[in-house]
Amino acid sequence: GKSIASSVIIPRTALRGNDQVYIAKSDDTMEIRKVTVASSDRKRAVITDGLKVGEKVVTSPVRGAGDGMKIAIVDRAKDDKEKIVTAADGQDDKNSGKKSGQKPAKDAP
């Protein structure tokens, strides 16, 4: 296939709509960010702008997601490398308890 310089590959489930991702930030909040998508298929999306290698993207649905929403990352299972991001305590009922997996972004080959 075509080579794309300076791109990041994320799971397709992390892409919201056509051009947004949810980022799990180090201060335990979530950020909604617009990205540039070069291509995508059922399993992955190639991002050419708006995402840095190593940033954690949320891969599961989050009801009532918003910028600055408090989140907590917990283990899904001992042998599973993925994590779960959940709305942190103190959020309104529509946000509490919704689970969202997150994976670090990877460099494109």
Blueprint (SSEs and pairs):
Elements: E1 8-11, E2 15-16, E3 20-24, E4 30-34, E5 36-40, E6 44-49, E7 56-58, E8 71-75, E9 83-87, E10 99-104, E11 106-107
Antiparallel strand pairs: 1-6, 1-11, 2-3, 3-4, 3-7, 5-6, 7-10, 8-9, 9-10
β-strand amount: 35-45%
Shape: globular
Question: What's the pLDDT, averaged over the residues?
Answer: 75
For the termini, the CA-CA separation is 11 Å
> What is the C-alpha radius of gyration, as a whole number of Å?
14 Å
Element pattern in H and E: EEEEEEEEEEE
- Secondary structure tally: strands: 11
DSSP summary: helix tally: 0
Low-pLDDT runs: 84-100
Q: Summarize the biggest pleated sheet.
A: 7 strands, antiparallel
The portion of residues assigned to helices is under 10%
Alpha-beta classification: mainly beta
